[in-house]
């Protein structure tokens, strides 16, 4: 039997699951205007008495919005239906992820079901169409209306224009049934191949990391890796975790903690030494946490990538660095530039991530991609996202919830899934844990590989041009 597929992404489904707040769900496409035709009769034939559903509209401006109801549609009712759990939502605005939930405020009028109409939420709060709408040039000109804030609380927007751009021309309308997902059998099948989970693998990964060095022809000693992420995402904690792995004890050279604003205020590169005085050829560069109106802007980030910002420079939103500043590095060498960008995101907080911060991260990603700097993502706090992991970190790469988070981030930011690495930073521990170490080392190894790839490109580009020696140690802080 042919099964229709819709446009709803896995990351959208994960977000909707969190808003519904009743555990994992299966989303089954019941109705699609482009396939079934856009008519109230077909809508009710396919969607009545199906239990909980979501209705999703896609308009020609790239905006995606809709509504959820736990009540069944029923053409024969011809009246309003009460549903305490109903809500409207926004998933995209003008092509950018913009996630908002608008809960029902007048539950007596949650939805309206009638044979002559498609799905209606509230008292025309979201009313899309009646009877039949023709597909003209790939567009359905919806003849409904959207009344603002009558039966739903529209927090975060000032009108429907902030949701659908004032454009009621849809490229598609979809309705999905929403049903509880049965527990998945514990097959222990890994969704990513990783080494054996033991002390031997830890030591092998440590030795491999110590052995990775820049090409001598480039005359630089270290890979420079910058960590970028929202306040509290775990950038500084990752620096401490990596350092702890190589020092053989819990360390805290990078100051970290919880707060409204970033505890880290400066650009601070850290070099890493092992307990045998061997040194990694890497500098982990901590930065100020991203906030909606504070932290780095796109210009400062571009300066940072290209090596113009000096070590220990303090970020100041009111007075960002400029070309004529005394500290501005006018002629940076390759050793001053960033060789890999690592975005750090809290796995337990993805659904709450501010859209302005997400837009900033996306603009940073574009800036790095434009000059061919490789990028990766660290997905931190996986123990808070999936409490069943508790001290069983060997199950991370067979845990379906963590896999879904990896897929969600991959779709949100446009990364290949093998560029996203789940990690657990040291936080409450006073002793090292092989599982925590392995997660950090697996991520670090691939980040080093990415930086090595970047350097190989630089070596190829500059093979005919000798590079002058530079002072490698000035201004760096060792851990």
Automatic annotation (TrEMBL):
Highest taxon of source: Eukaryota
Record PROSITE patterns: TLDC
Region (Disordered): 459-479
Domain TLDc: 2-179
PANTHER family assigned: INTERFERON-INDUCED PROTEIN 44, VWFA DOMAIN-CONTAINING PROTEIN-RELATED
Family: Belongs to the IFI44 family.
Protein name: TLDc domain-containing protein
Lineage: Eukaryota, Metazoa, Spiralia, Lophotrochozoa, Mollusca
């Amino acid at each position: 039997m042919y099964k229709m597929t819709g446009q709803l992404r896995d990351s959208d489904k994960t977000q909707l699951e969190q808003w519904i707040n009743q555990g994992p769900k299966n989303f089954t496409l019941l109705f699609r205007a482009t396939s079934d035709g856009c008519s109230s009769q077909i809508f009710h034939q396919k969607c009545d008495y199906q239990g909980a559903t979501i209705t999703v509209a896609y308009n020609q401006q790239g905006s995606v919005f809709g509504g959820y109801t736990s009540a069944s549609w029923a053409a024969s009712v011809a009246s309003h239906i009460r549903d305490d759990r109903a809500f409207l939502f926004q998933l995209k605005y003008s092509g950018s992820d913009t996630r908002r939930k608008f809960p029902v405020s007048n539950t007596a009028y949650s939805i309206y079901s009638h044979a002559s109409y498609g799905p209606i939420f509230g008292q025309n709060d979201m009313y899309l169409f009646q009877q039949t709408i023709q597909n003209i040039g790939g567009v359905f000109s919806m003849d409904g209306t959207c009344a603002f804030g009558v039966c739903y609380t529209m927090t975060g927007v000032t009108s429907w224009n902030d949701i659908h751009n004032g454009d009621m021309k849809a490229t598609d309308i979809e309705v999905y049934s929403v049903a509880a997902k049965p527990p998945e059998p514990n097959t222990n099948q890994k969704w990513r191949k990783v080494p054996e989970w033991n002390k031997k693998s830890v030591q092998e990964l440590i030795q491999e990391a110590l052995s990775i060095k820049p090409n001598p022809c480039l005359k630089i000693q270290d890979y420079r890796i910058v960590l970028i992420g929202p306040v509290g995402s775990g950038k500084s904690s990752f620096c401490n975790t990596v350092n702890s792995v190589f020092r053989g004890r819990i360390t805290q050279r990078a100051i970290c903690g919880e707060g409204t604003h970033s505890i880290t205020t400066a650009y601070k590169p850290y070099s890493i030494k092992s307990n045998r005085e061997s040194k990694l050829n890497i500098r982990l560069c901590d930065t100020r946490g991203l906030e909606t109106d504070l932290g780095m802007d796109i210009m400062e980030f571009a300066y940072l990538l290209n090596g113009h910002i000096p070590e220990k420079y303090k970020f100041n939103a009111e007075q960002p660095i400029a070309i004529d500043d005394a500290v501005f590095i006018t002629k940076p060498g390759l050793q001053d530039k960033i060789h890999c960008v690592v975005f750090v995101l809290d796995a337990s907080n993805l659904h709450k991530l501010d859209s302005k911060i997400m837009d900033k991260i996306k603009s940073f990603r574009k800036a790095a991609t434009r000059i061919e700097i490789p990028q990766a993502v660290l997905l931190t706090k996986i123990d808070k996202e999936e409490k069943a992991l508790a001290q069983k970190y060997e199950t991370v790469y067979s845990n379906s919830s963590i896999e879904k988070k990896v897929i969600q981030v991959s779709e949100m930011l446009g990364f290949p899934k093998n560029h996203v690495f789940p990690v657990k930073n040291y936080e409450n521990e006073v002793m090292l844990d092989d599982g925590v170490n392995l997660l950090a080392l697996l991520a670090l190894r691939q980040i080093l590989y990415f930086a090595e790839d970047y350097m190989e490109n630089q070596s190829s580009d500059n093979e005919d041009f000798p590079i002058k020696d530079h002072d490698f140690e000035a201004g760096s802080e060792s851990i």
